[in-house]
Structures are given as structure tokens and as C-alpha cells.
Amino acid sequence: MPKPVIVSAVRTAIARSFKGSLVNVASETLATEIIVEAVRRSGIAPSEVDDVILAELNYGGGDLARHAAVAAGWHSVPGQAVNRHCAGSLTSIANASAHIASGMERVIVAGGVQSLSTAPLMKWRVPGSDPMEFVEPWMPPSHPETPDAPTIDMAITVGWNTAKKVGISREAMDEWALRSHQRAVAAIDAGKFVDEILPLKVAAADGSVVDFAVDEHPRRDSSLERMAALPVLHPEIEGFSITAGNSSGINDAASAVALTADDYAIANGLETLATVRSWASTAVTPADNGIAAVNVIGKILDRTGLKVEDVALWEINEAFASVPIAAVRAHGIDEEKVNFSGSGCSLGHPISASGARQITTLVYELRRRGGGIGVSAMCAGGGQGGALVIEV
């Protein structure tokens, strides 16, 4: 059976939505730029690509993957849209890996794109209304809403519910978030992200064209005092502890990897960056959404026969700081191995791109450290979780 291997991994820098460097860059542009760069870095001819699989969310359903393939001039390459909310691009890579392992495809570009800055606004017709009434703006719900699991307010459904269930204090979440910012800033200053980022030429506010190549969400001035001073997002809820500081950012970005079969890579003289060893998804009741990240880690370790101590590095998405804290407590994971260069609280959380961003960062960091096993995991809307294991 062929083994799926990663032969390139790339991402854009992460921008703040609505006011950042990618505010006027459309999803279609981000998607086209990232798949072209993933293939260029791999050394594979575009004519050899069998499929493009991209996660998308709140884009409107136009199939970004196929649009990008055509825009790149790859008219014979199909495209598949994936939506598993936050875990979308992990699922894209998992789907691609499964196609390759089955022997049905040889070369696939997989990843995800998020541009909340340019996302369309939707409206929903109220059934039975006459004359027609609409809810506007409207977002498709990720699950049937309940009082303890609102579909729009993830601060409650994910952040707060996880903190309550596991017994995580405001102080512990603030400390985790602060360390995330410190690690992200240190990684930027050390140039750790340079190789993984595709600089984009974007228009600045003054009309000039600049290279956007540095993540803009991390805050150099973060401190525990500043974190503690932030108001909670729901003061009307007794004991509520989720703030903007211990939550992820609202962000735009794109990320992608090029995958091939191991025998194809060898036959074509391609450099293998990592092998995809396993993937998994799971789900819980939506009110326990953050715990899905905990559960999917247990599932993927069991599927691969790995122990926690076998894993060199972990990326556990900081949708809220409570999520990785819950995971490390449940599995006894060494915090020093988790989110080593920051995560959602600091780098930001470009939803559909975050999974492939995590994989990209894992690939480059593991290679710097001489190899090893990396695990990327996250919770996702609707009470879902996704994870992927790579080995460098």
C-alpha cells in the first residue's frame, strides 16, 4: 500500500480580519496563490496534480479548490470543498492521504483558506412567512442550538464549557495565552516562520504595495497584568472567565501541503518532508465541544499504537486557552512540547486554514530538531474534533 508523504508545506502570514493586511484580498486570490506555491515548492509539474482539496467556511459554497485550480491554469485538475469547521484543513489533508494510500491518486494539494474579511453575508427566509421575512445577517448553524451550546457564541460553547468541565481557572488560561504570545514573538524574531511563509504583495492603506510576510496578531506588549485587566465576554454569567485575551483571534490566511505516494516521490526524485501516519475525527455533544480535542487525541494515539511520550511535538489549537489546557491535563502531555511557537491565542485562528498551518509549522520545526513524530489536533464546530499524525 502506498504511503502518503508531504513534499511541500506552505502558508501565508496570518492577518487580523477586517482591519489587517489581507482585508482586501479575496479568498479566491489566497487559494490560487497558496496552491501554486505548494506545487512550485514540491518540484512537481502542475500537469501531474490529480486533485485539489481545500477547506472553506462561510465562503458561500463556490468550491474554492476548483476555482483556484482554474485560476492557476490547471484546467484538467478538479477541486473538492471540505467543511469540518476549525478542523477543515486537517480533514483536507486526511482525505488526500486516504486517496493516495488507496492507490487511486498520486498527487494532491490539500489545505484550507479563510478570509472573514471578504466573506459574503447571508440571509435566511423564515419558513412559512407571508409576506416573506428574512433573518439577516445569518450564519448556517453548526448544530441544533441549546441554551448551553449556542451556535454563534463559541466563547460559551467551547471556551467556558471546557473551563467549567475541567476546572480551569481564569489565571491558568491567561498564563497559557501569555506564554502563547511570548512563544510566537520569539519564533518571529528567530526567523522560524520565514521558510514556511509565502510573502504576498498587498496594497497598504496609503495605496503602496508591500510584502505581507509576518504574522500580525501576536502582541509584544502582552503581560499578565494586561490579561487580567480585560473584561470577561459575558459578565452576566456568574464566574465567567473567557476574555478576548484567552480566546483565539479572528483572522485571515491560507495554507496548503502537496502530498504524493512515497513510491512516486522516490521515482521522481522529490524530497520527502514528512510521512502522514494517521488521521482521525470524532464528535461529542455540542455543549462539550472543547472536549472533542481531548477525545480525538486519545483516539488517534490508540489507532497508531503511540504513547504520549512517543510524540516529539504537539500542535493543539488554541480556539480558547481552555482547550489545550484540558488536553494536556487529560493525557499528561508535557506543556513544553505543545504549541512551541504559539497558536490561536497569539498567531490567530484563520478557521479553515488553521489545521494545515499547524501541520506546516510542525513539519518545519521537526526538521529543525532532527525529526520525530508530531501530532496536530483541534476541536471543531458542532462538537467535532480532528487530528493528524506526521513523522519527519
UniProtKB/TrEMBL annotation:
UniProt keyword annotations, A-Z: Acyltransferase, Transferase
All copies of domain Thiolase N-terminal, residue ranges: 5-261
A Pfam family matched in the record: Thiolase_C
InterPro entries xref list: Thiolase, Thiolase-like, Thiolase_AS, Thiolase_C, Thiolase_N
GO molecular function, one term: acetyl-CoA C-acetyltransferase activity
Active-site residue list: C86, H349, C379
EC number: 2.3.1.9
Domain Thiolase C-terminal: 271-391
Family indicated by similarity: Belongs to the thiolase-like superfamily. Thiolase family.
NCBIfam families the record matches: AcCoA-C-Actrans (TIGR01930)
The protein, known as: Probable acetyl-CoA acetyltransferase
Species classification: Bacteria, Bacillati, Actinomycetota, Actinomycetes, Mycobacteriales
